[in-house]
Amino acid sequence: MPDFQPKIVAFVCNWCTYAGADLTGTSRMKYSPQVSIIRFPCTGRIDFMLLLKAFASGADGIIVSGCHPNDCHYSSGNFHARRRWIIFRGLLDFLGIDVSRVQFSWVSAAEGAKWAQLVNETSERIRELGPFTGYQRLRGLGVG
Amino acid sequence: MARIGVFICHCGENISATVDVKKVAAAAARIPGVAHSVEYKYMCSDPGQQLVKNAIREKNLTGVVVAACSPRMHEPTFRRACAEAGLNPFLCEMANIREHCSWVHEKGDATTEKAVDIVRTLVAKVKKNKALQPIQVPVTKVALVIGGGIAGIQSSLDIANAGHRVILVEREPSIGGHMSQLSETFPTLDCSQCILTPRMVEVAQHPNITLYSYAELESLDGFIGNFKARIRKKARSLDETLCTGCGLCMQKCPTRRIPSEFDAGLGLRPAIYVPFPQAVPNKPVIDREHCTYYRTGKCRLCEKICPTQAIRFDQPDEIVEVDVGAIVLATGFDIKHSDFFPEYGYGRYPDVIDGLQFERLASASGPTLGEMRRPSDGKVPETVVFIACAGSRDPAKGIEYCSKICCMYTAKHAMLYRHKVHGGKPYVFYMDVRAGGKMYEEFVRRAMEEEGVQYVRGRVSRVFERNGKLVVKGADTLLGARPIEIEADLVVLATAAVAQPGAEELAQKLHVSYDTHQFFAEAHPKLRPVETNTAGIFLAGACQAPKDIPESVAQASGAAAKVAALFSQAELVRDPLIAVVDRQAPPVYSSCVGCFLCQSACPYQAIEKEEIRGRDGQLIKTVAKVNPGLCQGCGTCVAFCRTKSIDIQGFSHEQVHAEVLALLNRGERDA
User: Fold this and answer.
1) pLDDT tens per residue, range B474-502
2) Which of B74, B157, B392, B407 could form a disulfide with B496 if both were Cys (CB 3.0 to 4.6 A apart)?
3) CA–CA distance, B48 with B54 (Å, rounded to integer)
4) Considering the domain boundaries, does residue B95 fall inside one?
């Protein structure tokens, strides 16, 4: 499926990754336009049911990214997010969603280049995986 | 019914060169609930803002989306404009189609489509926005300055002179920092201590400044205007109120052969010491690691000799708690030390030294009393090779950046050497000479043309010993990369300026961002260079990036001005983007079931218990309540709540769900 353009949603924290993505822009680095960002105060705010909601609504892939461990603007939100992710990835398997459709990462406010790389690698991987077709089934399960 | 106005900015060509703004405006106009959609060349300009204000009034808008740059840039601008037009500022959102779209993608349909997606997402969000009232919090008008180098000193003095109390914390036994170690300063060749020590004394004597030397920040809680800092005053092992600084103890101390930190390891000091004679405060500390008494349990000579009985061997560290309203971070820099340059023999040959060590050799207060004698045998070096960019601008060593100060201080070093050793031959190996600054280029020219310093453009591959000489092997790239060998008596490396050890740990304590080299990150590289991303914490000096003295001083005064501006307000206005717990009419009162998972999740202890009682005073239920003064709006509690009873204003469940659905265009796909 060469012309498949995946739809990827990035859930990022305001302080590190959002600012990092701003820096990517300020530095005029290029990346694939299939990723759009939704801003949260902190990755600790992210209710992971939202990820399922995004899949049920037609997302092909998801990025969750915040501050590096120990660097959270609010001290510990990113640790909560990491724990949640560890539990959540098992649930993805259970729901029949390929775990590699979700990319969990840390991008700091100084890592503009890392953000571009992360987006490009993720979109490339999702492109190889093809469209996510299970969204209707997810909705049947009552998600979203 | 929502009446949303969408305002799309061209940002000159920054957006319109890759995004078809007209298409975006047309697409936005078709989004349900959008009552007004226009594009304009510069939305942030006065006429641009006027466009927004007029539309709010004329079209009776209930929400505004400005599709332009990052909200980190202009959200305050447009929220203010909305407020001026009578619309609650929290009903305005920015759609970031510049940093996250036009700047990072090529021109094309996909980029325009993405811009439309972003606009649609924010329109969906703003429909769910609620009018919010800002929170007012009191301001504690006391500043904490961390680091007592020239930047910290300048900031402290400026804030204190503005009439506010300052608490200055310095890790070392004396304030003064690296500047006190320097012999002379470029480009004037002023004696560094001569211009610095009056400032140090001023700090000590200023009625508004409390100085905690030999102290470190233990922890920090709170938020702008209302920080609580715990400071560890390390035990000096003497009673400062009794000590007169007479120095007898230092003369008599039997443990005398400890490398002096102040002399960059070239001189020696006793176990009870002040770092240098002009130290502020002029009170010694006992270095417990080396002191004979602490190691063997015997000695106590200083105690016997002290005329005021000030020595306290059993003194513990003391923790001081202070309330402060703002913080200036001025922790400075360090230079790369040994084993980073095995090819240059640094650490292996005693006559391969770094720039700070050379400063001490050249300083009249240094271990050689200003005579140019090399460390190994005390001989006057006849040939000295200075190697610039030792580590800096070297991605292979992991330091890509320019350390900025080395070109200038290397020229200064070579000049000082020539002034002290008239027949001496100084060579400088360099990559480029970067001498931007007032009188800087002229200074380097003087070194080259008048002072007989031989500049060789090329890198040094290695330094090795041969017949008692240090052979510097390099290439002269201006002579066709011709290999060149110089037999030197002393080699000085202008090693890279790096962040202080412990900078990362400190940043984590303060929740301040830092870059990959552990330099603290400013809020905006151009327009907010003295602020951090954490409100109320400011930056001064080389803890942000390598800087010379005038730049550090300028930034320190800038930080002080920011603090003074903050303290000029009686009350601080904060964005109300905080958590709230559901409250509703009886008989439910609140959907909160009182599990208090949120309480254990909250990093700020902002969740309290509230008892809901009936008219007869009978307890109906105990539910969570958010203290708006303490809540910082991280939203960790929101993701924890089992019953979705706690929500965060500005990033509520409704808002983020609407965003996800709109971004994925769920409406259309379903239809």
Assistant:
1) 999 999 889 999 999 999 999 999 999 99
2) B392
3) 10
4) yes
pLDDT value for B668: 47
Nearest to B226 by CA among B140, B327, B316: B140
- Domain span holding position A58: 8-136
Contact A50 B657 (CB under 8 A): yes
Residues B416 and B484 in one domain: yes
Give pairs for B447-455: CB < 8 Å, separation 24+.
B447/B411, B447/B412, B447/B414, B447/B415, B451/B414, B451/B415, B451/B418, B452/B418, B452/B426, B453/B411, B453/B414, B453/B415, B453/B418, B453/B426, B453/B427, B453/B428, B454/B425, B454/B426, B454/B427, B454/B428, B455/B427, B455/B428, B455/B430
Name the token pair of B197: 């020590």
Is B99 in CB contact (< 8 Å) with chain A? yes
Spatial distance between the Cα atoms of B524 and A130, rounded to a whole number of angstroms: 39
Residue A2 lies in a domain: no
Helix (H, G, I), strand (E, B) or coil at B527: coil
Tell me, what CATH number does B641's domain have?
Answer: 3.30.70.3270
Task: Decide if pLDDT at B164 tops 60.
Answer: yes
Note whether B393 contacts A: Cβ–Cβ < 8 A: no
Hey, is the C-beta of B72 within 8 angstroms of any chain A C-beta?
Answer: yes
**Does B89 lie in the same domain as B180?**
no
Q: In this structure, is residue A88 part of a structural domain?
A: yes
Which of A47, A50, A133 best probes binding to B when mutated, by most B CB atoms within 10 angstroms?
Answer: A47
Range of the domain at B451: 333-498
pLDDT value of position B669: 43
pLDDT of B671 above 90: no
Peptide bond into B32 cis (omega under 30): no
Residue A143 lies in a domain: no
Q: How far apart are CA B274 and CA B261, in angstroms?
A: 11
Taking an 8 Å cut-off on Cβ atoms, the answer to whether B666 and A7 are in contact is: no
H or E segment and range at residue B447: helix B440-449
Percent share of chain B, pLDDT over 70:
99
Cβ(A67)–Cβ(A75) below 8 Å:
no
CB contact under 8 Å between A33 and B105, yes or no, is yes
Give the Cα separation of B576 and B564 in Å (integer): 24
Euclidean distance between CA atoms B671 and B359, whole angstroms: 75
* Rounded distance between C-alpha atoms, residue B557 and residue B540, angstroms: 8
Residues B447 and B341 in one domain: yes
Query: Best of A75, A114, A143 to disrupt the B interface by mutation (most B CBs within 10 Å)?
Result: A75
Smallest Cβ–Cβ distance between A45 and the set B101, B121, B636 belongs to B636
Q: In chain B, which residues have their Cβ closer than 8 Å to the Cβ of A39?
A: 71, 651
pLDDT at B39: 95
ipTM of the complex: 0.95
How far apart, in whole angstroms, are the C-alpha atoms of residue B362 and residue B373? 9
Contact (CB<8Å) A72/B511: yes
* CATH code of B108's domain: 3.40.50
In a domain? residue A141 = no
Contact assessment for residue B150 and residue B177, using Cβ atoms and an 8 Å cutoff: yes
Based on the fold, state whether residues B436 and B341 are members of the same structural domain.
yes
Asked if the Cβ–Cβ distance from A33 to B633 is below 8 Å, we say no
A128 sits in which H/E element: helix A112-129
Joined together, the tokens standing for residue A55 give 């899949």
Nearest chain B CA: its distance from A4 CA (Å): 12
Asked if B488 and B617 sit in the same domain, the reply is no
Q: Which residue has tokens 């089934």?
A: A137
Tell me how close the Cα of B270 comes to any Cα of chain A, in angstroms: 39
Could you tell me if B169 and B229 lie in one domain?
Answer: yes
Averaged pLDDT for residues B197-217:
97
Cβ burial of B471 (10 Å; 0-12, 13-18, 19+) is middle
**Using CA atoms, how far apart are residues B26 and B20, in angstroms rounded to an integer?**
10
